[in-house]
Amino acid sequence: MNAFQWTDATSVKQATGQQTTPVADAMLVNAKPESATIFKAGGVDVLDLMKEHVLAPGRIVGIGNLPKLNAIRADGKEGTHLGALVTIAQLEHDGGLQKSYRALTEAASHAATPQVRNAATLGGNIMQRPHCWYFRNENFKCLKKGGTVCFANQAGAENKYHAIMGNQTCSAVHGSSISTALVAFGAQLELTGPQGVRRVPLEQFFVTPEKDVQRENSIQPNELITDVLLPAPAAGTGSWYIKFGERESYDWALADVAVVLEQRDGRCTKASIVLGAAAPVPLRATAAEAALLGKPITEETARAAGQAATAGATPLEQNAYKVPIFAAIVKRAILKAREA
Amino acid sequence: MASYRKLKKSAKKEGKFAALAAALAAPAIGAAAPGATRSLTMPHGIVGVNLKTISRDVPADEPPALVTNDKLNVLGKPTRRLDAHLKVTGQAKYTYDVNLPGMLFGRMYRSPHPHANVRSVDTSAAERYPGVKAVYIIETVVGSAVERDPNHKNPKVVSTGGKFPKVRYAGQPIAAVAATTQQAADEAARLIKVEYEVLPFVTDLDAAMKPDAPLVYGGKEVSMGETGGGGGAAKGLTQKGNVRGPATKSMFGGARGDVEKGFKEAEIIVEGEFRTQVQTHAPLETHGMVADYRPDGLTVYLSTQDTAGARSELAELFKLPKTEVRVITEFMGGGFGAKYGAGNYGVAATNLSKKTGVPVRLMLDRREEHIAVGNRPNSVQTLRIGAKKDGTLTAMQLVSHGTAGVGLGAGVGWIAETMYLTNPNFKGEQYDVLTNAGPGAAFRAPGAPQGAFALEQLIDELAEKVGVDALALRDKIDKSEMRREQRRVGAERFGWSKRQAPGASPGVVKRGVGAAQSEWGRFIDMDSSCEVRLHQDGSVEIRSSVQDLGTGIRTVLAQVVAEELGLQPTDVTVRIGDTNYPPGPGSGGSKTTGSITPPARTATYKVGQELLAAVAPALGVAPSELAFVGGKIVVKNNPGKSLSFREAVQKLPSAQISATEKRKDDYGGFFRPGVSFGQSGGIQFVEVSVDTETGYVKVERVVGAHDCGRPINPLALESQINGGILQGISWALYENRHMDRNHGHMMNANLDQYKILGSREVPQIDIIMVEEYTATSSTDALGIAESANVATAAAVANAVYNAIGVRIYELPITPERVLNALAKSKQKLGKI
Ligand SMILES: Cc1cc2nc3c(=O)[nH]c(=O)nc-3n(C[C@H](O)[C@H](O)[C@H](O)COP(=O)(O)OP(=O)(O)OC[C@H]3O[C@@H](n4cnc5c(N)ncnc54)[C@H](O)[C@@H]3O)c2cc1C
């Protein structure tokens, strides 16, 4: 790991006044990383990237001690506010969230390991870079780093964990399984910059490789995620989340799904189904949602939605097996959400 | 492994190998050892099956025979590790923890190219980096195969491809730096500039076998002094392109009978192609050394499983007498076969210390550990078994290919040859395929888990064709009495009789059970010695250079000494892992306990006799009428008359008495020098659940029935077998080296994406030890570590088959493979 300067920010204002660069920009091949300043919250992802020598910032601004950003606050009308420094462990154990946003607490309790969850923050989790092993290897100057090749998409490449949808340009999947659930609940981000505050739906915050292969989201220089708002769920909302990995301990999702359902008179009136580890960004499975709308939720409709979820998938050489896995977990999550 | 090397040498001297039957027969009863002997009556046989006593002629100075464990006080009793507290509280000092005054930190520079000639190495920028004290450029690469011109008279002449060693895998070390901080060393190593002439490469086994594949070794013959993954590579085999072999022999002889005839006689033939993946050792502590080179000699702290062997290699490499080389391994964090010798990192650290005059610590990082210091080679095996309608075996034929990267020894062992000795006809051909990947190394039962994966699945397939239960067929074709008993007790404990037909389990998540057998040779390291010291203050000490690989030999030695002197293990000080003590065995081939406990007991017996002689006058009886019992020396037929151990030692004529002993040949001799008669058995039963919609396999329950001669510490044994099973499950389901064939890099060289089983993947495990007394040494102890790892993956595969009714021929059994196999079988069914 390179030597770097360290500043511990004491206020949001001070933090956003530091001329920071999004980590994505600091990782570009032609960037001058030694002159870059980046944010660090829990440091789980930042340190991983630095240890792999794909990120070498000259200066780090610690935001872990910023006041007031580590609270979960339910606001009757609006919904629930999650501070950007709330840890994944906090999400997992919060009683209010467990009651109203079950899919989120399920996602939190299945992410990473207890140790990681205690250090990892919500803001950092959303901002983590993909865990494609070509991207994270210093020997591969891939598209994301400003190179000219997606190594994972080459013939003969090792891509069994990669994207099966939206993968034409780059097939790295997003690692945030928390976002899978957040997007399903229609979460809104609050971003604070030197010019002030802006709000953007999390779903729109993420950008596809076709839009910008070097970045996974639209964060701007000097900008900080300060809050995540979960809209208050309507009465009769049920939700569930399933993460599928090769192991239960210490593993990333091979496929994960969050389902949020509203039902009235035995029929589905609203469905929000989001797939994680399917595409470079958390992906709304709109065809699956459509398959449920207006219908009673049964084994049969859930199965049909599961099939629809990956319709049009374009698997790579090694990952076609993910398609049936998505079909299975989407079906199961729908059936669980029906009861939850 | 040192023992294999020695074995081969002595085998050559002897001429032809002994016949297989002789190998597995017990030594002749009463067989006389050379020199003065006496006859001992010893327990012999399997407890609960055929235990009796026999008489053996043994060297006259051997201790009396030990009774069976049930009549002993310390041996065979679960004993807490003496160092457990030190380990769990962080007080135990591993190589990684060694911190010497003035010590520098090292880091290696490695090639990013899988195949290249090195044109130049520029270390100037690294040398200028603040804190850097020295740079070393590697002269020869150790650990991989050696290229040599077959016509050259001197086999040691190495063709390296120029001034610098040729690069043959991505991650091959080229240079190293030493600096005042680890961080400076890390950064400086990155400033080394190397000019490469990049060459075509191949990392994929199948691709490397093609006639037009890039040649890893320029087409010249290679040979290898050290063991690769298959337990050693035979010398002098022909090589064509990247393919070397076939090796057709094993230490048990190799081919027997006439397979062609055997297959003609067969009424049923089962056949399959089985594939296993590369597994990296991934010990908790990476390879590494702290080297302290001084004018009066070299001391190294090394994470090694063979202090004595490492000393020999360092002495040879640095042209020092052995008296001036000291290797210390107080504690080590696992090796599994990969931690032998000095290593490139060790040679670099020693050279850097020599250059700077201060100690240098060079520990590998996790990436280096995965790519450069060993792995279990992969394998592709075609196995064919012929049988009569009733299951009687008529022939077995094996062809295997595997790659140990730039190393050799990717065989699949001898398990197909020796597990079912009723089979009259066997032929095996095993090929090494060279690829541009890190060298393989011995890994927990080299070759055998691969061999078992094929053999034990195919035997199950045969049972199904014959129409009998898988265990019933084994009862018919397996000659081993030990395994017959293990099948019986294991099946009972497991509930084998409740087994359903393949695929009969209802629902989406199906349950299945399967079993597989294990076998492993009984290796003995004849260079196993130790000294036992008895001090006048009553303290007792045992010393040997043998190291504790993590298996618990420290505690086992204390038990042996304690039993002999009527003490408790905690009364004994065990000093090991230092070549200043008498040379002990390397810890590989599961040979530590079987090698070092007999001399430990014999030496203790001798100091004990000396002590009895010293106290006899005070008790007014002959020494022979005294015994060590419960911390006292008592008069045997007058137990009221005694002296406490502490009182007794004060009668010693000098401040300290001691005896040094060395491992002797087995009573009744060896089948081959350093190899005992017979093999260890074992069977494992596994229950899995398989989610047929997602392909997820989970091991729910394992029962293992094993043997290791006389069990010494059942607690450590159980933990060793647990470890073997868990490592086996990890290999069966999760671990895999993902090598990018386009660029020659391992993509998952970390513990995040290289998936080792974690706490949530640990099943319920139940171990049964079947005690056996072989009457071959003063302790009758044998090893366990490797046989515990052999059967697991095969048993998991058999259980998966039982659950879903579709067989998986390739490891690891991932969701992907299960789903693909299920889809294929559905397609097939659809067509019918
Ligand atoms: C073994 C392992 C398994 C994992 N498994 C999972 C999993 O299953 N699911 C999952 O979701 N994640 C998983 N993770 C990822 C982990 O959750 C994230 O790395 C972590 O949440 C990052 O949070 P952090 O606070 O440590 O971020 P940091 O490492 O401090 O920062 C990460 C990035 O976010 C930026 N950043 C941090 N906070 C802010 C902010 N408030 N505003 C703007 N930018 C910010 C930083 O500049 C940096 O670019 C796993 C990680 C590991 C090591």
UniProtKB/TrEMBL annotation, chain A:
Pfam families linked to this entry: CO_deh_flav_C (PF03450), FAD_binding_5 (PF00941)
Chain ranges of the FAD-binding PCMH-type domain: 1-235
Matching InterPro entries: CO_DH_flav_C, CO_DH_flav_C_dom_sf, Diverse_Substr_Oxidored, FAD-bd_PCMH, FAD-bd_PCMH-like_sf, FAD-bd_PCMH_sub2, Mopterin_DH_FAD-bd
Gene3D superfamilies assigned: 3.30.465.10, CO dehydrogenase flavoprotein, C-terminal domain
GO terms, molecular function: FAD binding; oxidoreductase activity
Domain of life where this protein originates: Bacteria
The protein's name: Molybdopterin dehydrogenase FAD-binding
Organism of provenance: Hymenobacter roseosalivarius DSM 11622
Automatic annotation (TrEMBL), chain B:
Keywords: Molybdenum, Oxidoreductase
Oxidoreductase recorded as keyword: yes
Domain Aldehyde oxidase/xanthine dehydrogenase a/b hammerhead stretches: 89-200
GO molecular function: iron ion binding; oxidoreductase activity
Source species, domain of life: Bacteria
Stored Pfam families: Ald_Xan_dh_C, MoCoBD_1, MoCoBD_2
SMART domains: Ald_Xan_dh_C
Region named Disordered: 228-256
Record-given protein name: Xanthine dehydrogenase, molybdenum binding subunit apoprotein
